[in-house]
Each structure stands twice: as structure tokens, then as C-alpha cells.
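Long-time lurker. I teach an intro course on protein structure, and each term I like to show students one example going from raw sequence to a predicted 3D structure in C-alpha cell notation. This year I'd like something fresh instead of my usual example. Would anyone be willing to generate the C-alpha cells for the chain below so I can use it in lecture? Attribution to the forum is fine with me.
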Amino acid sequence: MGSPDDIPGSRSKRAIEGERALAIAIRTTHIGAMAILVGGHHVVGMEPSLRLWKVLTAVTGLALLLSEASHSRHWFYQVRGVVALAHVGVLALIPISFLAGRPAFAGAVLVAALVIGSIGSHLPKTIRKWSFRHGRIVD
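-- Reply from a regular --
Happy to contribute to a lecture. Here you go:
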């Protein structure tokens, strides 16, 4: 019997391992950038010196969303997708807090996003893959 590399249209083990390594690198960079952004905000506020960390957090977050959403066509209505979108949605409160004249609220929003992201990333598979649309676990 041949290896998966011999089957037309199949993905090789090396390709899958490469994708996993890239996903881990993106997630690690996202966590590191967000840690610096959240910590930096609580030390110095929303200073221009945090701009790099804001951008890096946003870019790696978008990359994670695209990567995660590509794992299943059901992602958007599974718990994992809804939690990820809630994580992003909470961050939309930051510019709103500035427009409302409440910039101090931004720190609480960053912490809320951190908590939502952390919880969503560590839910058991049976919860993460539960579909609101189907009312059961769906791959």
C-alpha cells in the first residue's frame, strides 16, 4: 500500500505537519503580542508606543480566524466559531469607548477579550464542536 503522498489529491503528512507548525507559530505570536498589548495598556494606557502590538495582535488574530474557520464549513455556528467571533466583537467596544469619552473602559475590554479567547481556546472538543444549527456535535 502506498503512502498518502502517492494518492492524487491527498495531503501529505509533511504538509499537515507544516500547517500545524504554522498555526502554532501564529497562535504563539498572537498570545505574545496580546500579552504585551494588555500589559502595556495597563502600565501606560493607549500610547502610540503600543501601535506595533495592536497591529501585530490584529494581524495574527485575523490569521487565526482564517485558519480556524478553514477547519470546518460548520465553524461559524459551532461554539468555537461563535466564541471566536464574540472575542473579536468585544474588541469593537474599544473605539466605541473612546467615542463615548470613556477611554479607561478600553483596558477592561482588552481583559474581557483575553478571557474570552483563552476560554474558547481551552474548551473540550465536545463543547467546541457543538453546533447551534444542528443541536449536536458536528465535525
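Some talking points for your students: The helical segments are 13-44, 51-69, 79-91, 93-99, 105-122, 125-128. The CA atoms of residues 73 and 86 lie 18 Å apart.
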